[in-house]
Structures
1.
Amino acid sequence: MIANIADFLASRRTTNLFDPDQRLDDAQLRDLVRIASTAPSAFNLQNWRFIAVRSEEAKQRLRAVAWDQAKITDAAATFIMVGELADHRTLPARLQGAVDAGFMPAEMVPGWEGAARSLYADQPQRQRDEAVRSATFAATTLIHAARTLGLGAAPMIGFDADAVAREFGLGTQDVPVMLLAIGVALPENWPQKPRRPVAELLQFA
Ligand SMILES: Cc1cc2nc3c(=O)[nH]c(=O)nc-3n(C[C@H](O)[C@H](O)[C@H](O)COP(=O)(O)O)c2cc1C
């Protein structure tokens, strides 16, 4: 099993060329988001949202503020991965499912909320860091979810964040963390690029 997952990860590649004739229906997009939302987040904040840009009009609007990248119009959809500034006040609602499921004692929730308050309240940099972390975990999970459906994915940071926020109605709590194009990959895509050797990356302590 582990070997299979290692192979799965080693054969993933960033898709640059998408088949422009292949589309995804709303049920498939919902399924991808459902799987992506299994990603972990600090305190289970789940401070992420997904805007599926899939109409021709919206794709053109996004491409115009994203370095004119053709992937955005060729892919079936491009998700704007939105991270929300971490806010401890959201926690009781976000933890309610664990309480209802019977494994998290209700009396534990205020403790978690207090810890989150001490970490994030009046700490804009930390709030933003958590937005970026959470949306990045969600994006990574979405990339692998897409592959299980036979789809390729392309993360992108080449966009004007202010323009994306304006065009797609993001609020002051929202950070457009990255774009993630999803669709059917053409065979001409490059394989995964070689990585730096482990000896350069790993330090023991
Ligand atoms: C956060 C992030 C932002 C990226 N932004 C872009 C981008 O705007 N345009 C693009 O063509 N590729 C973009 N890439 C793709 C990278 O170039 C690609 O993942 C990297 O070269 C490794 O490729 P591989 O995974 O196929 O080996 C981005 C990747 C990441 C993780």
2.
Amino acid sequence: MRFLIFLLILSNIFIWSEITKALNQKNEVSFLDVGQGTSVLLAEPKISILYDAGPNGLKLTKALDRHLPLIRKKVDILILSHADQDHYNGAFDLINRFPPRIVVISPKDSAEAGWQALLQKIKAKNIAIIALKTGSLVETPGKKLFFLNPPINQINSLNDNQSSIVIKAIEPTSSFLLAGDIDKKTEFDLIKKYNRFLQVDYLLIPHHGSKYSSSDEFLKTILPRLAVIQVGKNRYGHPNGETIQRLKNNQIHFWRTDLQGELTIR
Ligand SMILES: [Zn+2]
């Protein structure tokens, strides 16, 4: 009996702590540690948006379990920046555990088998798929999301990485630029088009710190308070020493998820 009461008290404490967690939830942006890949959770009390699903569903769903409150274990919108496995593969498990209402994809189509299998799975679950145009704005109670890339009129001449969805997220206290796997050419096009509008507090370094991204001009235009390199064990040499050096030359502090783990900004 005593044991049962103890268990009841314990479960009540657990429920109350979960309710308080949900009520106190503020805007939170988490650069999840999903290994070699990208996944960023933009959570606020009434809506959660996931930018990319990383390479591994188990790692992703575990991380989301920790971040999402028990009474609102939901991802409302999943944005898949482009059709690379290190950005979409975790979505297979995500769709089973936290089925989103909408999946936003790049307008650039890919014939890659895994990507096509994922689209089939999303359709089979009756989840809406939207290819959002550049210039679109998504507004939630806590933030504005500006879709800056890819340009629809050049879509056929772009490769997969260049067609990554790039988002600027503006929240009341901070701003973020999530840049997928774009290369220097795309960075240059973005600077030409948006210039100072690219400036944010937190920059998700494109392409896991590849040397073919994060040009000096791009870093100088954005000048973030902090750059985040989402990266894990890989055979491509990410993050590249040249990128690290460019960050240092511009006196930009950076965070590496492979060395420092996940990072949450509140
Ligand atoms: Zn990637």
3.
Amino acid sequence: MRKIIQRSLNKYCRWRIGQTLPGVLDDLDAYKKKSNTTGTQWITLWMSVKSILKHRPEEILESGTGSSTMVLAATVQKLKAENPNYNGRVTSMESVGAWHEIASKNLPEKYRAEVEIILGPREKFEMGFFRGYSHSNIPNRNYGFILLDAPAYDDENGLSFCADVFKIMDFVQNDTLHGVSDGRASSVFVLQTLYGPTVARYYHSLYAASFSIPRIDFRDRKNNTPKDWRCTPNGRLVYKKFRKH
Ligand SMILES: C[S@@+](CC[C@H](N)C(=O)[O-])C[C@H]1O[C@@H](n2cnc3c(N)ncnc32)[C@H](O)[C@@H]1O
């Protein structure tokens, strides 16, 4: 059942993308022939397009370059065409040298003005009681949207999470960060643990979650007073410091 829902939704989202960003489907088909990147599912791409069109962030961060880069760039071009004051761009991080080379070579000329592809080998990221992996070399820009689709987040210690969404909180000034996670349940789990489940609803049939979260400092050692924790009547601990409800 899950697979049937996912397949139908992907079909619908592909159609919505084609309607919203004319020409991009042809570019994606052509790109696929040149690069055998894993790609990003249509559900995730459509969630990203919707969020960017709604919030109009000028600085967009992509974690994991590939065909998705063109969709983000086409969305920026649409916003630019509709609003001369909008000056958005996509910073696309790629952690693997070989993929960085392929992606840099294959990005169509028509998207190059909107995109900067940067090589940032993955590095460990630690924050409070979580550990993850992030891209190194992320430029210090005031990101308002992030597409979480890399880097690899497992190692000899097991499963961690994709941490770019928190790494950029060290320097962004926006109070709210919008984004979408493609799969990466462990990353969504971290978001839900800190902000509550309503902030990033995740369903296997979507294999993606859209989120809007406040910028926080989770490295502060003082985030540990009894007020920061709630105990439910049956003894379950909830870390509630950053939860709205
Ligand atoms: C899920 S992929 C990112 C896909 C990208 N957002 C896209 O739409 O094409 C995550 C990472 O896997 C690596 N990768 C890309 N294509 C790959 C392939 N065909 N096989 C294995 N790894 C790949 C790259 O380092 C990439 O950043």
4.
Amino acid sequence: MTKTVLSLKNVCKRFGGVVVADRIDLELHAGEVMGLIGPNGAGKTTLFNLISGVVMPDEGEIALAGRVLQTLPLYRRARLGVARTWQHMRLFGSMSVLENMLVGASNYPGESLLRLVFAGKSVREAERAAREHAMGVLERMGMASLAATSVNDITFGQQKLVGLARALMSDGPCLLLDEPMGGVEGSAYETMRSIVREEAEAGRAVCVVEHNVSFIRDLCSSAVFMVQGRILERGDVRTLLESKALAELYFGK
Ligand SMILES: Nc1ncnc2c1ncn2[C@@H]1O[C@H](COP(=O)(O)OP(=O)(O)OP(=O)(O)O)[C@@H](O)[C@H]1O
Ligand SMILES: [Mg+2]
């Protein structure tokens, strides 16, 4: 049986009077790419925010490989291996591609002043390892030559890839991608697809929020359809994409 990496049980969240997560039960397994689809405002990003610790649930349990997450702050969840990208990228435009990736590395020593002051050699060693890791990720994306380029000077598709590259600084078991393909085309599209596929093949549990249905069809084995904070349907990706509820509530026919 495939290993359960992430599990949500009865997760609930309200903003004011609006229910944005309504008794969500979900399991994500090692090697799986699950598509999370639904209309604007369905609560997809909120679900990622609940898992990664940006917002706390009102009720319910979230566990990563059996370890309770819902009481932990965002940085602890990142260290435990919840890696994610952001719908609105959140890159530092004036910083280089490599610097943006190092900012996202949770084990990068630069984030601890004490370590910087007291642990000279091990800090340098950790920095070197983080840079090497980052360059390895960029090489896989065919973007090593852009490492020192400012993010403002690369294309939109390349910026989206930097968002993914930053998430891949974590070796954690769980990867959440929030609209990785929005506005991406051409070679960046192909790169995104093949990297996500490789990550799943290497055993990561991946969940992708995406409005690009052909990307979902190409990449995902399973899918979940969410509307107004509720999971309405779930299952095999092809069956779900042909479901009546999806046609009516998502495609509007
Ligand atoms: N921090 C917040 N405070 C109050 N309301 C919020 C907050 N974050 C999200 N919402 C509301 O929760 C609902 C779900 O938003 P969410 O961003 O999760 O939707 P989504 O499915 O990701 O939509 P999209 O496809 O447009 O990205 C929306 O009504 C949104 O306005
Ligand atoms: Mg969203």
